[in-house]
Design a protein that fits this description.
155 residues, mainly alpha, 52% helix
């Protein structure tokens, strides 16, 4: 940050944090910036932000382009477009109603798709589909499988 001439009051490095500390920090944030240039499959930070009801400002490349719904669960900008990302940051910082609306939709997205229970349901649907395509039924061990985290609520 110093090499770029950024003031310490505007950029803070927190070092390593526990999962609970990260979730607490996310819960108090206006939004989460995820301008990845890599084609990440499913960044954990996205699920954590959505779980906390925080909108995500993301580059539109890779899976992030599909996982963040522009103007619904967050704001997207083209990869490497610093001006567009800065404008998204300005919008979110200056419009708390927008941040609240996008955050509420992000939380609904999390509850509908990314909770441990929703993930378990999707995975079992995939297993059943694969078994049926091969003319088989699910093995008995999978038919009743329900991890403890599904019943305990997860994130």
């Amino acid at each position: 940050a110093r090499a770029l001439g950024l003031e310490e009051s505007r950029v803070r490095f927190f070092g390593q944090k526990t999962s609970a500390e990260v979730m607490e920090m996310l819960a108090s944030a206006r939004g989460v910036v995820l301008p990845s240039l890599c084609f990440e499959n499913f960044p954990a930070l996205l699920a954590e932000a959505y779980a906390c009801g925080r909108p995500v400002l993301a580059s539109g490349g890779g899976a992030l382009g599909e996982l963040v719904a522009h103007e619904r669960t967050g704001l997207k900008s083209a990869p490497r477009d610093a001006s567009a990302l800065a404008e998204s940051l300005r919008r979110l910082a200056s419009d708390s109603a927008l941040a609240d609306k996008l955050g509420a939709a992000a939380r609904r997205e999390y509850l509908g798709k990314y909770t441990p229970g929703a993930n378990h349901h999707s995975l079992m649907r995939i297993y059943r589909f694969a078994a049926e395509r091969r003319g088989r039924t699910l093995p008995r061990a999978l038919r009743s499988f329900e991890p403890a985290s599904v019943t305990q609520g997860g994130l």
